[in-house]
Amino acid sequence: MGLVVVLFCPVRAQETFRKEWEAGVSGGINASSVFFAPKVQQQMLFGYNGGLTVRWTTEKNLGLQLEVNFKQQGWNERFEAPEGYPNPETYLDYRYIRRMNYIEMPFLTHIYFGSERVRFFFNMGPQIGWLTGESTEENLRGATPNKTNAQHTMAAEKKFAWGLCGGPGLEIRTGIGCFQLEARYYYSLGDFYNTRRQDVFSKASPQVFSAKLSYLIPIR
């Protein structure tokens, strides 16, 4: 009888976990900049993100997550008058902002801990993206007020983007679905300008900090 109980307990433990399929929508804000070499003085550019999410929880504390998102990123230049410049206040009038719109697909490992109602999680994995368009806001009027200025007249030369992303989050599970608050960091391993020896830049790779809210419902 004791042997039967020992064999029966692992079976019941395995049966208590049920694989989950969930899908939903997300939206949030981004703060982005670009690692340029030669360096370009910048401050964070704020934009927005939104998309669709599908998550498959394959086993206890572990799952896979696929997203298709729209993300607005780019850079916002900061202009500082050189020491000894006769009219430094005129530098405050300069503005240059480049907004770049991407469709992106993160492929994430989803790790979570917690109770049935409240979970803490961490998502991480590779991400690919495609540049769908870019726009500029500027009032330079042909001036070259930064140490590096070639980017002002250069459109992106590479549309495909790839990199790594990840971050923590909190999930509240209710009878009408799952509500998530997540922070995420993305670092591009590619450049949107050509970076060969003869090119202007040896590096032009974005970084993006994101915060977003998601709503998921069971689909299976």
From TrEMBL:
<dbReference type="InterPro" id="IPR025665">
    <property type="entry name" value="Beta-barrel_OMP_2"/>
</dbReference>
<feature type="domain" description="Outer membrane protein beta-barrel">
    <location>
        <begin position="13"/>
        <end position="193"/>
    </location>
</feature>
<dbReference type="Pfam" id="PF13568">
    <property type="entry name" value="OMP_b-brl_2"/>
</dbReference>
<protein>
    <recommendedName>
        <fullName>Outer membrane protein beta-barrel domain-containing protein</fullName>
    </recommendedName>
</protein>
